[in-house]
C-alpha cells in the first residue's frame, strides 16, 4: 500500500509524492505532511500554498516564494529546451533544403532533369 507525502523539494518546488510501505523521503525536514503519521492528505490542497501549522495543514493566501521561483526556473528551462529543439529542426531543414537545391542544380547542369 502506498502513502502520500507533501514535500518541499530541494529546488523549492512543493510536490506530492507516493511512497511504499517502507519508503520515506531523504530529508524529513522537508516533509510537510506524511499520511502515515498525519492522516489522509486532503483532496483539495493547492500545491505551492500548503503549510503546516502545529498539527494542521493550512492553505496560505499566497504561493510560497521558493515554489514560485522553482516553478519559474522550470518554465524557463522548458522554454530553452523547446527553443533549442526548434533551432535544431530549423538547421536540419535549412541544410536539407540547401542539399536539395545543390543536387537539383547539379542534375539540371548535367541535363538529367
Descriptive notes:
The protein has 113 residues and is an alpha+beta fold. It has a domain of 62 residues. Helix content is 43%, strand content 21%. It contains two helices and five strands. A hairpin with a 2-residue loop joins strand 4 and strand 5. The radius of gyration is 26 Å and the shape is elongated.
Summarize the entry for a quick read.
The protein is of the alpha+beta class and 113 residues long. It has two helices and five strands, in the order βββαββα. It has a domain at 3-64.
Element-level helix/strand string: EEEHEEH
- Assign the structural class, choosing from mainly alpha, mainly beta, alpha/beta, alpha+beta, or little secondary structure: alpha+beta
- How much of the sequence lies in strands comes to 15-25%
Please, how many helices?
A: 2
> Which bin fits the share of residues in helices?
40-55%
Shape: elongated
What about the largest sheet? 3 strands, antiparallel
Note the gap between the termini: 69 Å
Which runs of at least 5 residues are low in confidence (pLDDT < 50)? none
Mean pLDDT rating: 90
| Number of distinct beta strands | 5
Described by its quaternary structure, the protein is single chain
What is the C-alpha radius of gyration, as a whole number of Å?
A: 26 Å
User: How is the largest sheet built, in terms of strand order?
Assistant: 2-1-3
Amino acid at each position: 500500500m502506498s502513502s502520500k507525502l507533501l514535500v518541499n523539494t530541494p529546488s523549492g518546488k512543493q510536490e506530492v509524492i507516493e511512497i511504499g510501505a517502507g519508503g520515506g523521503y531523504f530529508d524529513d525536514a522537508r516533509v510537510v505532511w506524511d499520511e502515515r503519521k498525519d492522516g489522509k492528505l486532503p483532496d483539495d490542497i493547492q500545491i505551492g500554498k500548503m503549510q503546516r501549522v502545529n498539527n494542521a495543514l493550512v492553505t496560505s493566501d499566497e504561493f510560497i516564494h521558493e515554489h514560485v521561483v522553482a516553478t519559474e526556473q522550470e518554465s524557463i528551462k522548458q522554454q530553452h529546451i523547446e527553443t533549442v529543439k526548434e533551432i535544431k529542426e530549423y538547421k536540419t531543414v535549412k541544410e536539407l533544403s540547401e542539399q536539395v537545391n545543390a543536387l537539383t542544380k547539379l542534375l539540371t547542369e548535367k541535363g538529367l532533369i
